C-alpha cells in the first residue's frame, strides 16, 4: 500500500512540473525584427528595443520617398499674382517696365517700344528674381508671354517695311487675344497708316496690320490693301 501511495505522489509531482513549464515560444531574447512597412514611427531609420529584449529596426524608405516628392512639387509651384506697376526681368534676362495708364489698361514698355493691353496678366517669380508673364484667356487656358515688346515691334516693322511706330505717325501696337478654342493665341497686333503713291503719281494712305505671336515671335498674319503692289514709298 505504501508503494502504491509513493508512486501516486511521484506521478502527481512530475505532472505538475510539466504543466508549469513556459509555453511562450515567441519570447526569444536577442532576436531582430525588421519592419519595412508604411508605419509612422516618429524616427527615421532609428533602432529601439522592446520590453522583452527584441530589437526593432524601422525602415523609413517609403516615408523619405514621399517627402522627396513633396519637396519637388513645392519647387515647381510658384505663387501667381496679378501684374502690377514696376520693373520686371523675364526668364531670358530681358527687362520690362509696366505702367497702369487707365482702369484695366496696362502699358508694357521696353527700351524702344510701348505696348498697351487689356488682358489679364499674372506673374510668377522664381528665387532668382526672374519673372514669367502668364496671360489668362477667356476660355480658361493660359499662355506665357516669351517675346518682349522690343523684339515683337522690330519684327512687325520689318514685315510692314516701316522705320518706327508711334502714335504721332498713326501707328499703334497692342497685346491681345485672337482665335478660338485650341487656336487661341496671344499676339502683338500692330496697325499703322502709311503715306504712299500709286504708280508713283497719286498720293494715297495705306492701312497696314500685322500680328506677331507672343510665344514664338513668328508672324501670324499681315494685311495690306489689294492695290499695295502698285504703291511706292
Task: Give a structural overview.
The chain is an alpha+beta fold and 233 residues long. It has a domain at 80-232. The chain has three helices and 16 strands. The strands form three sheets. Strands 5, 6, 7, 8, 12, 13, 14, 15 and 16 form a nine-stranded mixed beta sheet that branches. A four-stranded antiparallel beta sheet has the order 4-9-10-11, with no helix packed on it. The protein has a three-stranded mixed beta sheet with strand order 1-3-2, with no helix packed on it. The model is unreliable at 22-77 (pLDDT under 50).
Chain-wise SSE layout:
Elements: H1 2-19, E1 32-35, E2 47-49, E3 55-58, H2 61-76, E4 80-82, E5 86-89, E6 95-102, E7 105-109, E8 114-117, E9 120-125, E10 131-136, E11 142-144, H3 149-160, E12 171-178, E13 185-198, E14 202-213, E15 219-223, E16 231-232
Parallel strand pairs: 1-3, 8-12
Antiparallel strand pairs: 2-3, 4-9, 5-6, 6-7, 7-8, 9-10, 10-11, 12-13, 13-14, 13-16, 14-15
Report how far apart the termini are. 146 Å
SSE run: HEEEHEEEEEEEEHEEEEE
Largest sheet geometry: 9 strands, mixed
Q: Based on helices, strands and strand pairing, what is the structural class?
A: alpha+beta
Instruction: Tell me the helix content.
Output: 10-25%
Please, what is the average pLDDT?
75
User: How many helix segments?
Assistant: 3
DSSP E strands, number? 16
Q: What would the principal axes of the Cα set say about the shape?
A: rod-shaped
Q: Low-confidence stretches at least 5 residues in length (pLDDT < 50)?
A: 22-77
Question: What does the radius of gyration come to?
Answer: 40 Å
Share in β-strands: 35-45%
Amino acid at each position: 500500500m505504501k508503494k502504491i501511495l509513493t508512486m501516486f505522489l511521484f506521478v502527481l509531482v512530475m505532472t505538475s512540473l510539466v504543466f508549469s513549464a513556459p509555453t511562450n515560444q515567441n519570447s526569444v531574447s536577442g532576436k531582430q525584427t525588421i519592419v519595412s512597412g508604411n508605419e509612422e514611427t516618429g524616427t527615421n531609420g532609428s533602432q529601439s528595443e522592446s520590453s522583452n529584449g527584441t530589437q526593432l529596426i524601422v525602415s523609413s524608405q517609403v516615408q523619405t520617398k514621399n517627402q522627396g516628392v513633396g519637396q519637388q512639387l513645392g519647387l515647381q509651384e510658384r505663387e501667381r499674382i496679378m501684374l502690377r506697376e514696376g520693373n520686371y526681368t523675364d526668364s531670358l534676362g530681358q527687362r520690362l517696365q509696366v505702367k497702369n495708364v487707365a482702369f484695366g489698361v496696362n502699358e508694357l514698355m521696353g527700351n524702344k517700344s510701348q505696348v498697351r493691353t487689356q488682358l489679364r496678366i499674372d506673374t510668377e517669380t522664381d528665387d532668382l528674381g526672374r519673372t514669367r508673364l502668364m496671360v489668362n484667356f477667356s476660355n480658361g487656358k493660359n499662355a506665357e508671354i516669351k517675346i518682349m515688346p522690343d523684339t515683337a515691334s522690330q519684327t512687325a516693322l520689318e514685315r510692314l517695311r516701316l522705320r518706327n511706330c508711334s502714335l504721332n505717325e498713326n501707328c499703334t501696337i497692342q497685346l491681345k487675344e485672337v482665335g478660338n478654342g485650341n487656336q487661341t493665341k496671344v499676339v502683338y497686333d500692330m496697325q499703322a497708316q502709311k503715306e504712299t503713291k500709286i504708280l508713283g503719281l497719286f498720293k494715297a494712305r495705306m492701312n497696314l496690320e500685322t500680328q506677331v505671336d507672343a510665344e514664338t515671335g513668328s508672324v501670324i498674319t499681315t494685311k495690306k490693301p489689294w492695290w499695295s503692289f502698285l504703291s511706292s514709298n
